[in-house]
Amino acid sequence: MPKPKDEEYINRIRKMSEEGMTSYEIGAVLGKTPATIRQLWKNYGMIHNTSFKSKKDQRDLEKAALIEKMAVKGLSSAEIGEAIGLTPTGVRSYFRRYGIKAGRARGSQPGSYNTNWKGGRRINDGGYYEVAVKEHPHKNNCGYVREHRLVMEQIIGRYLKPEETVHHIDGNRLNNAPENLMLFESKSAHRKHHADMNRH
What we know:
Elements: H1 4-18, H2 23-30, H3 34-44, H4 55-72, H5 77-84, H6 88-98, E1 121-123, E2 129-132, E3 144-146, H7 147-156, E4 165-168, E5 181-184, H8 187-199
Antiparallel strand pairs: 1-2, 2-3, 4-5
Helix pairs in contact: 2-3, 2-4, 5-6
């Protein structure tokens, strides 16, 4: 009978197998060869899928393997997301889909990634930097304001109106350099700008 740790490992393979993942895909996630996975299928009588999936699925698996490596090193979903261009929510969806164990528990995450942290700078689920500004009139329920809005307020010398929108010229939500920001009077004006850009 397998030890508890081995049993957890086997159950993880069984779950991925039942979801239709191939030996190649499971091996990519777990860092094992397809032959090893097939031998485990045989040893434990698992239901499995012998077909191969699309290139898109293959890229997805490679990303999952990368995410798992970073999670094993103890990186949080926010830290992983910042490194590979995903939101923390996007990273957590890989955790769920591929049975990846999260790096740090919420309470043990460092600095801005810890939900008990009392101030500073963090990346929110939308992929934007936000800063703790407890006295700001437009702070969110946790006392944070998106950093690009704060930068624009410094540029124009006043608080932004709630309907005003700040655009990132290069499309990078984390690049809050003043020269990369453009102010629009409303969300509709911002959407029109994007529509105009897509036409050209």
